Here is the input.
Amino acid sequence: STSEAYGDPLEHPQREEYWGNVNPVGPRACYDESKRLGETLTMEYFRQYRINARIVRIFNTYGPNSQINDGRMIPNFITQALHDEPLTIYGDGSITRSICYVSDLVDGLMRAMFRPHTAGEVFNLGNTEEHSVLEYAQTIIRLCEATSTIIFEPNRVDDPERRRPDISKAQRVLEWTPKIGIESGLRRTIEWFSNTLSQPSNIS
Here is the structure.
């Protein structure tokens, strides 16, 4: 699952016990509700058939080997900055996100899958360091040594205002905490994007 199960949360940071604040008929509803349906089915199979399953709610994740044109914030910003193009922000840049480096996420997933006595449990996995979208854009421009400007577009409907996980349960039960700092992770990601975009097949 993902943090989208919480919708546009009224509780901050979000704990696993929080049921969320979701618009079930909005333009983003099919994505949010698909996560909640997946969680419902998982828990019913656990309760009815004792399937060895648990739920992990993944918060924003980034890192090398991302899809360059997948439309997510970090790949978009890095690709735009490496081309010295304007970075596009939806809204005024004040909404916040917490981004987790991919190797930290994989470590958390492995712990959740194989830690004994965790069947039927729900875990948040993400980085608790929270920044505004504008701060991420400015940091990426700096790390890319780009001359990019920032342009602001109208905010997307039902886009969550704040997003930060409470990972105290994962820390306690899985003994998991993210290790890669934001700047370190972004530098690694930028290096991978730079190398990938410089390949002839990716030069437009």
